[in-house]
Amino acid sequence: MLSLFQERAQRVEELMRNSGLNSLDYVEQFSYLLFLKFLSDILPQPGNLSKGEQLQNYWRYSTWNSRDASDLPRFVSQELFPRLASRGIGHPNIDTGVQAIFNNAYLLVREPTVLKQIIEIIGDISFGESEPNPYSENFTIQEAYDTLIGNLAADNMQLFGPFYTPKFLVRLIVDLARPQLNEAMYDPAFGTGGILAAAGDYIKERSKKTNFYFYGNDIYSIKNASVYGREVNFRIFKLGIMRLVFHGINPEGLQKGDSLSREAQTSPQPSYQVILTNMLFEGGTTSTASRADFPIHTHDFSALFLQHVTTRLAPNGRAVIVVPEGLLFRGDTEQEVRRYVLESFELESVLSLPHGVFAPYTSGKASILVIRNTGRPTASTWFYEISNQEIERLRNPMRDSSVHFDLDNFRSDKNSRKVLIDEIVKENFTLNASRYISQTEGLVYSQVSLDTVLCLSEDKAPIIIESNQQLLQLSVNTHHQGVDFLSFISSNDLRNTASKKQYQQVHAGQILIDPTNFSQGALGVVPLQYDKGVVPQRYYVYSLINPSINPDFLDFCLRSRRLLDELAALARASSGRLRLASKAILSIILPVPSLETQNEYVGRLHTQREASLHAFRLLKTLNELGDGIDPATFGSYQRVRLKDVIESMQGGLQNSGTRDGGELTLIRVRNIQRSGINLADSVFVDRNTLRDADERLLKKDDILFVRVHGSREEVGRCVVFDLPGDYVCSSNIVRVRLNFEKANPHFVVLYLNSPLGRREVTSRSRASVQYSINQDDILSLLLTLPDLNEQKAILKRVRDQQKRRRQLTDALQELRDESFHVIEEILAELYR
Predict the structure, then answer these.
(1) What's residue 635's pLDDT?
(2) Which of 53, 430, 536, 771 could disulfide-link to 49, CB 3.0 to 4.6 Å?
(3) CA proximity to 314, closest of 380, 224, 374
(4) 76 vs 64: CA distance, rounded Å
């Protein structure tokens, strides 16, 4: 049954993606309809309904799924969703959640036949007891929906990873918290609801309630549990509500908002017996002025969040919190927060998680804190180093769900230790486990602090300039591709003092780190061929002062995840980015073998590294070609103005649209991106409000120009419209329809978006409050236009080049992964 559900979900996904929806759109739209089908099936419908009772059941799947396809988009977007948002479904214990889910919900699938297909596919999924039981051994909606959310996070690592905690880690958090019936549970950043859902499953398992139980109109199986949470992202908030309902949990205690705001500190529920949360990722939108006052004033997000958790913990309550490692040993206000926690609460345990647990969402290292509010200060704390083997055991999908993680089993392990508070105080309230659990046992090589190996060049080396000399400008590539040549700088360009101050001179063998991009692997050693090159002043430059260290050995150690995570833990957030202090690297300790062994390790890495650099340079060359439009290629082709090859042009609607639904999707400037049209955050207009609606409808292969934009780089940007369904465009967009016997729209867009075409477009744009380009300017744009056959041939060459670029990108990623694997193997030998 589960595979059948997945097959149907994949069919829905394919239909939605072909309609221009991204991963989040797909999961959201699928969830709305699946949620209604689920409620329709599990909530019994009384027989012999009166007319009034029939009206109250308007939301049931069976009452509207048979509508004619042409009417479905209007009905769902303008009637069904708005009524659900305002009235719910007439079940008091459910309506709070239903209204929150459908508040400002909008339908993105606008093509009637596609929407009809999707509704029919979902209609075939049965949650009724007469069909195979969805809560049987072989199938649960909880499993299926959890998988759906997990896939969303995996497909969008950077955007949605922060809202999702890996399943095995969720189980570990819940096992440590051991929630019980009648306890108020709280997750101040509940994201997609995974931790609260798992806590509910834990209670049901302990209460022998493995199925949904009906209490009148109540579908929630955990009737006596109170679940609370906050989530700042509106769309993720809705997914979290639906997930909890699927798990049989009443979502009335869930709120949209920032847990660090003053409002959150004065919510009706003052404290909670159990708090479970993952605060590894920075979040929150509250301004400093609106942020609540906490015992320790700080701008560090994790330190604020930890204070929020402890101040909301009820007497004799317990909190299990995932925190970034840096919070546990950094000084200043973070140290004061640790002191506050130790003096006001009992810090029962600190579990240090191994590197890579949250990959690929983040490479940051993390720990789990177990805190109890007993009214007493901390007298001692157990520290644990959780091994990779234990993590793999937790990850194992065949793991018996009835077997739970128990810290008592680890207290005789060599990777655990009970530490008295006096020792913690002596260590400046440091709480990372590695400080107290000896890591020297089993190390083959001696440990060396980098402050005995490297010297920071604090006095920037003066640039020595000879007449008519060409200096090499160097850069540190991200993704661990080392130091590379960027361009030449002539001595004449560096004659004045201001220009000199922009650069510093470096020498072969020195270590370079870009302090703002180090977490992306922007560090490396200056090769011999780049001796006396120049780099930006912002780079940190270190000289090797220990002759027993091979700089290439040190270079690949610094490329490892282990060392990068240590650097990240030492960094601080500034303007939304991590920034590393210049002396932070000097505090890192490395195991250093003999010079002979170092050379052996470097040799093992050399061949693979050369292959990686070769792929990187090929990709760099391809990227430098831009979009494949080479000015030299077009010298023999005719030059025409756009007005000579168009059939018609039209401005967009003076209408801002609404999210409440409408028959026509309104494409705005924000929907036009370099990769094409993105329908995220769509709005709609009612066809009946337009006198010339049919003339306004976009057609396949129309070109859409951005008429007004705040950035000069984006004004005049254009895309080819190729979506099914009924669409119109806003007033800041100009629609151009070509004469297809003269020009291929895909070629025209390719040309105008190329560096050559962008020069033409930007030369005609104007700057006032924003940059703009009017219709006359668009009509006068000059195009280099071959004949139609040559246009198609050029498009094919460009697409082949783009395919080659994707292949090289994939190959380069494989080589990077292999490089990391080799590095980690070597480091494992060093640390074994």
Answers:
(1) 58
(2) 53
(3) 374
(4) 9
Residue 461 to residue 22: CA distance in whole angstroms: 50
Confidence of residue 656 (pLDDT cuts 50, 70, 90): confident
Q: Which residues contact 399 (CB under 8 A, 6 or more apart)?
A: 393
Q: Give CA–CA dist 765/27, Å, rounded.
A: 39
Six-digit token string for 645: 């090859």
Secondary structure of 601-651 in HEC code, one letter for each residue: HHHHHHHHHHHHHHHHHHHHHHHHCCCCCCHHHHCCCEEEEHHHCEEEEEE
* CA–CA gap between residue 743 and residue 645 (Å, rounded): 6
Instruction: Report the candidate in 130, 40, 157 with the shortest Cα–Cα distance to residue 94.
Output: 40
Q: Which bin fits 586, alpha (ψ -120 to 50), beta or left (φ > 0)?
A: alpha
- Residues pairing with 320 in the sheet: 276, 370
Among residues 642, 685, 638, the alpha carbon closest in space to that of 660 is found at 685
Tokens of 621: 């060359």
- Calpha distance 25→9 (Å, rounded): 14
Asked if the model's pLDDT at residue 273 lies above 90, the reply is yes
User: Residue 269: pLDDT above 70?
Assistant: no
Q: Write the pLDDT tens digit of every residue in 21-73.
A: 877 888 889 999 999 988 888 776 654 444 444 446 788 888 888 889 988 99
What stretch of H or E contains 684? strand 683-685
Backbone angles phi, psi at 145, to 5 degrees: -70, -35
505 φ/ψ angles, rounded to the nearest 5 degrees: -95, 140
Tokens representing 27 are: 């999961």
* In the predicted structure, residue 137 carries a pLDDT above the cut 60: no
Cross-strand bridge partners of residue 350: 369, 383
SS3 185: strand
Separation of alpha carbons 513 and 525, rounded Å: 9
* Percentage of residues in the chain having pLDDT higher than 70: 75
Please return the burial class of 218, using the count of CB atoms within 10 Å of its CB with bins 0-12, 13-18 and 19+.
middle
Q: Say if residues 727 and 721 touch (Cβ distance below 8 Å).
A: yes
Which residues touch 426 (CB under 8 Å, ≥6 apart)?
none
* Rounded Cα–Cα distance for residues 29 and 109 (Å): 8
| Confidence at residue 132, expressed as pLDDT on a 0 to 100 scale | 37
Max mean pLDDT range (18-32, 115-129, 365-379, 493-507): 365-379
Report the distance separating Cα 188 and Cα 260, nearest Å: 9
Q: Give the residue among 405, 373, 394, 368 at the shortest CA–CA distance from 383.
A: 368
* Helices 167-177 + 388-395 axis angle, to 10: 100
**HEC-encoded secondary structure of 813-829:** HHHHHHHHHHHHHHHHH
Strand 416-420 versus strand 380-385 pairing type: antiparallel
Q: Residue 568, SS3?
A: helix
Query: Which DSSP letter does residue 658 get?
Result: B
Q: Looking at residue 700, what is its pLDDT?
A: 92
DSSP bridge pairs for 728: 666
DSSP 464: P
Phi, psi of 22 (to 5 degrees): -90, -175
Going by C-alpha positions, the residue among 26, 36, 42 that lies closest to residue 75 is: 36
**Beta bridge partners of residue 229, listed in sequence order:** 187, 254
Task: Provide the H-helix boundaries in 285-427.
Answer: 301-311, 333-344, 388-395, 421-426
